[in-house]
Amino acid sequence: MKSLFVASALLAATAAFAAPDGQAIAAKHNCLACHAVDHKIVGPAYKDVAAKYKGDANAAARLAAKVKAGGVGVWGNIPMPAQQISDADVKIIVNWVLTSK
Predict the structure, then answer these.
(1) What separation in angstroms does the CA of 56 have from each of 24, 80, 101?
(2) Nearest to residue 20, comparing CAs of 71, 85, 91?
(3) pLDDT tens column, 3-28
(4) Which of 10, 43, 55, 66 could form a disulfide with 34 if both were Cys (CB 3.0 to 4.6 A apart)?
């Protein structure tokens, strides 16, 4: 009985420290209105972003800055407006995008 309690406590502690869900945070900030994981909407598909920046050690910082400041020209002529998102949430979203398969 005691081991069941310990196992339950460990499971709850693990869930509390689980990595944040990048897709859920992207949805919370309406990123999915213009981007999808696997196809272009207004902006590029996240899988295409991950492929373009694969192996680029500076990609996370560059993309986080682009989300915050906005930009145009890398993926076409439709501008992405600057986003009012916390640095912590941008970091989670960008990491999720870059590590998606």
Answers:
(1) 25, 22, 16
(2) 91
(3) 444 444 444 444 445 567 999 999 99
(4) 43
